[in-house]
Amino acid sequence: MRAGTALLAALLGGPLLAGPASAAAAAAGAAPASAVPGAAVAASAVAPGAVDVRAERARIAAGRADAAWQYQAQAHACASRFAVTDCLDAARRHRRERVDALRREEEVLDAAERRRRAAERLEAIRLKTEAVERAAAPVGTPARPRLPAAATDGRSPVPTVPGTATPAPAAAASAAPDAPDRAARGPRAAPAPRAGRIAPVPDAEAAAQRSRAADRRRTESARREAERDARPASTRAPAAGLPPRPEIPPPAASGAPAGR
Question: Maximum CA pair distance of the chain?
Answer without folding.
Answer: 181
